[in-house]
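Checked the freezer inventory, then went back to the computational side. Two predictions to log before the end of the day. The first one is the construct we discussed on Monday; recording sequence and tokens without edits.
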Amino acid sequence: MKLTQQVTKEESTDVLSEKELNAAELTIKFKNLVKEKVKREGVEELLNYLDSTDFFEAPASTRYHLCEDGGLVQHSLNVYENLVKVIEFLKTFDSNIEVNEESIVLTALFHDLCKANKYEKGTRNVKNTDTGKWEQVPVYNYRENTYEIGHGAGSALLLQQYIKLTSEEIQAIVWHMGAFDLSTYSNVSCLSKAYSNNILAFALQQADMIATYISEK
């Protein structure tokens, strides 16, 4: 059964497991948020693209956080909720801070868009400490031969194919990994300038780290 199918708990408890039902609810919440807050051309095409991928079933990572079915959509929603709170917190220091709500939704919900179709299920051998025997356990592996262009940049480029982004939104998504996504030309100096000039970029990175290292542990 497609996770995007709208079913009530009463109708589906005997069909879907609790985890599947939760994933379906998260998918509906995600889509409704996009439809309600984003009024730009290309929204329907973007959501159709998501449905053609495993975005709503994929894990958020292979082993670091929410390594489970539906982890990616859960993480995206977590980052959105964190981003709203982070921006409100920053306003207590500077009342002049203003961030467009549409920008908050787009950058938070799609900062990891590049992870769609990037992972596949597999197994690895783990030694059982009680029996001393090796056992196969399920894991997620990085799918080989996928198109690579970098993490933040990949998400921004893919999203831009469907939704016209502002320069601030692109910069926020590109730098959402902070110092974890540096290169020879995208160095700490570039990162510092991005965060100094773009409060959305700084806030998104904080929201993502809060989700990864605190709320999703």
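The second is the one RB wanted added to the comparison set:
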Amino acid sequence: MESRHLPIVRTDKSFKQMSAGEKFFVRVSKSGFSQSALCEFVTIEKGMVVGEVLKHYFPRGHSPFEELTEGNTIRKRAKNCFLWYQGESEHWPRYHWFKSLNEPVN
């Protein structure tokens, strides 16, 4: 999966300001391999972002991670979540990572 296949997702809110249904991405890494999923925000539980997986993105030839199966509920720290969009001073879309539940992406 190449990043150019990701849909544009942008917000100026932190996770604590998000409402149910807003979109974000999550990245999971195992044994040196990373896969991403587009998720819909559900809530925050015990300092973790809770979301429902809408679409799983993984490289051709790789087995998909089971936890990122579409329809699953995931719980991840904010630092494993990101948005994908083109900033005003950027020439192409890029990853914009969350640092915490209280801070919007940079």
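For RB: The chain has a mean pLDDT of 89. The radius of gyration is 13 Å. Let me know if you want it refolded.
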